[in-house]
Design a protein that fits this description.
Layout lengths: L3 E3 L19 E4 L5 E5 L2 H8 L4 E2 L14 H4 L9 H14 L2 H25 L3 E2 H6 L1 H11 L11 H12 L15 H28 L5 H12 L4 H33 L10 H14 L7 E6 L3 E3 L2 E3 L4 E5 H4 L35 H18 L4 E2 L8 E3 L5 E2 L3 E3 L1
Parallel strand pairs: 3-9
Antiparallel strand pairs: 1-11, 2-3, 4-6, 5-13, 6-9, 7-8, 10-13, 11-12
Helix pairs in contact: 3-9, 4-6, 4-13, 6-10, 7-8, 7-10, 8-9, 8-10, 10-13, 11-13
């Protein structure tokens, strides 16, 4: 199944997407017609994300008008589990993501970024940053991190990972019947199913090999931790490994691409300053905070008991739509907004990676790759600039993220 590049419909860049106004919790209707309570204020959102009376269970198909991505709809997903099963699986992941392990990965992540920067400079202008940088960097990190960069049966090329990622993260409605280039829906559905089955089979075999011959990669660490802890269903472990491989790769590519479109298109004055590591780190955090990865504004939960948020009571069994985008732009917490000095530290911890029990387990990786990429790219190419207006950027659509299909630049 191929990604969709929309060049017919003008879409705003993600940093200019409107968000729901910040106000007390109130009733709303989700795109699929489900009644819900919308939560938008920063402190309300942070409270509800950490409340054990709020669950994700049995909400796999609620909230969107089109199909739901497998990564969000599969009951085996870490995202869709709560209670003891979720704590057990999260504990296994955290045993693999130790501070010492993460510190050991940082030097070669920096080296992978620098290698892509050097290749870009050597090739010379003009260039497409999507093809030459924002996709190669996370792919190199993903395959090294997961031990998929060899020539043996575990070796994974970019085309296969891209196809499997699109299948795992695909969402939306049917192809446009009036579009002459639209794919046949039945053939598309079959390709989607086949890709998911191939990915599951590959991951299952990968886990089995790591049990027999563990290495120093993340898959080996996850398998050893899961077997040590016990009680982790194999289906959950397979979905975890597949999700970390695909989602981690796609999320970083999207975050990098969207950040570069904003910086080069609207903040060219700030670009050379990113050569300073401290400035790059603070800027990366602000961009990850203010620029979402996709068009979906809310994450969906259900209240198992009545919950009071800032004087408003959400009734038991109500669906709760939690707007991370609104919370991250709450003027009472972040009065300066995106277009202030990008070197300013955030006034409060970002909710871009959620909070509470479902805090994103890959946040460290996105932060690391964003920081290293901005700093090393700006140091090498202080005159980097877009060669097309931001309004003309074409977008890769069809998954849980939206990223630039091409980023034409020169220097």
């Amino acid at each position: 199944m191929d990604s969709v590049t929309d060049t017919r419909t003008a879409l705003p860049p993600l940093h200019r997407l409107p968000v729901s106004p910040v106000r007390p919790p109130h009733p709303t209707t989700l795109p699929d017609g489900t009644p819900a309570w919308l939560v938008t204020r920063y402190h309300d959102v942070r409270q509800v994300l950490g409340d054990p009376r709020v669950t994700r269970a049995d909400l796999h198909d609620v909230g969107t008008a089109g199909a739901t991505a497998d990564v969000a709809a599969n009951p085996a997903s870490l995202f869709n589990q709560d209670g003891p099963a979720h704590r057990r699986l999260r504990g296994t992941v955290q045993r693999a993501f130790t501070p010492r392990a993460i510190a050991g990965w940082q030097p070669w992540v920096a080296a992978a970024v620098q290698q892509s920067v050097d290749a870009l400079v050597a090739a010379g202008p003009p260039a497409d940053l999507a093809a030459a940088f924002t996709r190669p960097v996370p792919f190199a990190v993903t395959t090294r991190l997961m031990g998929l960069d060899g020539d043996g049966p575990d070796g994974l090329d970019e085309e296969r990972l891209h196809r499997w990622t699109l299948a795992l993260l695909a969402q939306g409605g049917e192809p446009d019947a009036e579009d002459p280039d639209a794919e046949d829906p039945d053939a598309d559905a079959a390709a989607h199913t086949d890709a998911l089955a191939e990915y599951a089979a590959f991951t299952t075999e990968l886990i089995a090999r790591r049990r027999r011959e563990p290495g120093d990669d993340l898959v080996s660490r996850l398998v050893l931790a899961a077997d040590h802890d016990g009680g982790i269903p194999e289906e959950s472990l397979v979905h975890l490994v597949a999700g970390l491989t695909a989602s981690g790769n796609e999320s970083v590519a999207g975050a990098l691409g969207n950040a570069l479109v904003y910086l080069l298109g609207e903040r060219a004055d700030h670009w050379p300053r990113l050569a300073d590591p401290d400035t790059a780190e603070r800027t990366a955090e602000r961009l990850l905070h203010f620029i979402p990865l996709g068009d979906d504004e809310a994450t969906i939960r259900r209240a198992t008991e009545p919950i009071e948020l800032g004087g408003t009571v959400i009734p038991a069994d109500a669906v709760v739509a939690i707007s991370l985008g609104s919370a991250n732009r709450d003027p009472a917490v972040y009065p300066e907004g995106l277009d202030a000095d990008l070197d300013l530290p955030l006034a409060a911890p970002t909710l871009a990676f959620s909070a509470g029990p479902h805090y994103c387990i890959g946040a460290w990786r996105v932060r690391l790759e964003m920081r290293e990429s901005l700093q090393r790219l700006a140091a090498a190419l202080p005159g980097l600039r877009l060669t097309t207006p931001v309004a003309d950027v074409a977008w890769q659509l069809g998954t849980t993220t939206r990223s630039p299909a091409r980023i034409p630049v020169t220097w």
